[in-house]
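A further point concerns the way the authors explain their paired sequence and structure data. The central task, working out the structure tokens from the amino acid sequence alone, is never made concrete. I therefore recommend that a typical entry be quoted early in the introduction. An entry of this sort, consisting of the sequence and the corresponding backbone structure tokens, reads as follows:
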Amino acid sequence: MNQLETLIAEYLEWQGYLLRRNTKVGRLKHGGWEMELDIVGFHPRTQDLVHYEPSIDALSWEKREARYAKKFEAGRRYILTDLFSWLPPGTEIRQLAVFISHPRGRDSIAGGMIVSIDELIAEIRGKVIACGPMARNAIPEQFPLLRTIQMANAGYYGIVEPSGATNDDQRIRSETNRTSPAAGSRR
């Protein structure tokens, strides 16, 4: 699993989705599998069933269309029978292709939505920043990529700018600098 897949999986699980990752589907008679589904998640409260296929490929749109037609068709064929067989057969599957870019006027591919990496990161970053600094509302440690985003964008007590200015209140920064082992190394 690559880092983009890992980030998507962490993000979904953090939001309460049950996940299946890199799941081979469609056993072939002569051996092997028809397809591998990258990330499939189901949220028990919202009943949202989502299938992500991220890629940083440089293929032409024609080749991508053919590739994603196979991936998304396999998802529609096997998600409700092999991965989440306890869901009703008519459950809607929201399919997303995550690419490096999202060209204007091209919002779908093979029946799935197109999302750019930057659009996805903006969504994730926004929800992580909304948690605030780690000292007040840390993302659980089983999500290291999300915690890194939280630390980089909200800080532990608040973001300290390179000049020493903070976007959090001065009292917290002053107290932190007196007790922080790293504070002595900055002087």
In short: The chain has two domains: 3-126, 132-182. DSSP finds seven helices and six strands in the chain. The chain has a mean pLDDT of 88.
